[in-house]
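Hi,

I'm pasting everything inline rather than attaching a file, because the server keeps stripping attachments. The sequence lines come first, and each chain or strand is labelled.
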Amino acid sequence: MANNPMQQFNVYKIGPEINIGGVDLSFTNASLFMVISAISIALFLYLGTKEKKIVPDKLQLLSEMLYGFVAKMISDTAGSKAKPYFPFIFSLFMFVLLCNMIGMLPYSFTVTSHIIVTLILALFIFIAVTVIGFIKHGFKYLSIFVPSGVPAILLPLITVIEIISYLSRPVSLSVRLFANMMAGHTMLKVFGGFVISLGILGGWLPLSFSVALTGLEILVAFLQAYVFAILTCIYLNDALNLHH
Amino acid sequence: MNLMRGLFLILVLSSTNTVLFSAEAGMPQLDPTYWASQAFWLILVFSVLYVSVAKFYLPKIKKNLDDRENKIKEDLDKANELKRLSEKKLAEYDLIMENSKKEISKTILEAKKKLSEDIEMKKSAIEKEIEIEMTKTQKDIFDLKKSSIKSINSISKEIAANIIEKIVGDKLNESSIQASVDEVSKKNLGKYL
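And the predicted assembly:
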């Protein structure tokens, strides 16, 4: 059991069972780590904004750099129209980043390694972007499926492809994050298992792999949070600025 | 055979413990037991996070950033204003310096002019004096020469009378001696006057 690399993804109840209308909404370890991530973000932002200095200290500088980073990401990909959605993108990026990063701590739980979590985030983004698109452009928003400058003979095919690609956005968005996190953590666990099973003589090789993989996984944790946020920006850009 | 065994195992495990089942048989992510719970807590936590970030933290960061930008801008404006003022002062100073330099050179020039005029005046006065003195002295010399020539004439007349008396032993007519001395002296007078 202990050697099972998938065991780390187990979800179990913490505390009493909460059952509302026949649906089990119990507080689990996944919920715990969501709360930990959110509290870490809040704490970090609280400490980063506590003192308003003209010359910032480290935490304040970090929070301001993150602000600038996300603000630049949004304005670069979605333009100035996306400004009202800045808090959402910022929260999303920070939440995914913190969930990924806290998941890197030993014995912790990676919230984003569960497809249901990423799928709900992705579905929310997908639905919100679609609604925003229809609110901003009405039925003209459907022209996103009909790219301009395509030969008439190819148009039906292209339109079908565009529709499929549009509808597969939530799937690709959620599976990308989930699969990356799950694969990385599984791999770490497998190599960790090798260290134990090969013992003091042969365990050094998988241990060094583990160290390297940990570095890689930290990079992936940041990168996937960035990709998640920037893809959201790109989708938002499609809805706000109908370029097709 | 293996498939049958696996199915049997799954059935047994699922009837006993779903948590164990999900751990044993593959990906716990695909076990729907806690999907609703995860969705619920995700939405709850993320909503709270979003609201606190949107209403509280981001405005604070933005305000601080704006404040800093404004402060920097104000400071820059102030610095530019001060720079402008100092440049103005410098220009004023330069102007004053230039004017005073001009004044100084003017004063120096005037003083020089006055001095040279003074010198010139005194020089000409002295020269005039010298001139007067010289003419007077020349006249004196001329007079002296003339008078000396007269006395030379009378002396040479006497000498001539004496010489003639001694040589000849006879007194000659005084007027004839006078005439010959005058004649000789007139002949030679041009040499001395």
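The CA atoms of residues 113 and 150 of chain A lie 40 Å apart.

If the labels don't parse on your end, tell me and I'll reformat.
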